[in-house]
């Protein structure tokens, strides 16, 4: 008997309103175009199988042609491939990063939870670290960590969905909050010196977890060490502000050069650039002081 035609969900229904609106914003489409876009993506990713006469609770997939015998009959149970367990393609162990439920969970039965638990930064920061992109150290500061913790608690109640590209021809629906930069984020030179030095510890842990490699991790570790032990710190607030602005610009430039495959050893402090930045800050302070003491026009003597 012929099967009922496979139909996509009706993305015009109110239940898909948030997803449609997000697609309109990200793809710069009107509502009708966004609905068509979602239907096309639904078909391309092989998410078909909902029978319209049975609702969304009964999903069926088209049978894999390779699983049928030449005579058109399905193979008996004993002829089907044995389950692979937690093996991946080619009989190799499956990737531990695969979604939960796709493989058997394994662990060391003698291992236990650590005495000190590391705070978890926002997903936005972690994802940017994983793809080797610049992220302000604010996300690893106490303020950034508190905001990340609040976002986790509120996600179940207020989260919306976003469409992201997973593989060629495929899309993934995930939390929009985990993709967005915080409106409260600060640049490195907008942090206090103590906030900056606190955040760098979690940053170093994050790039280690993201497997940036020993050379890059050591370079950034020495970068922070050289800043913290630089003679300019003896100048007090002026010196620390200069070091923070230098660090902010150096980290941004390093990532820009990384894209061009021209990354360098950031640990080496460019003393000429640092001195130039210190003079720049001095000039700003002088101008600010002049603005404060300038006599208003209506009080000037004619």
From TrEMBL:
It comes from the Eukaryota. Residues 41-110 are annotated as: Disordered. Residues 51-84 have a biased composition (Basic and acidic residues). Residues 92-101 have a biased composition (Low complexity). This is Uncharacterized protein. The lineage of its organism: Eukaryota, Fungi, Dikarya, Basidiomycota, Agaricomycotina.
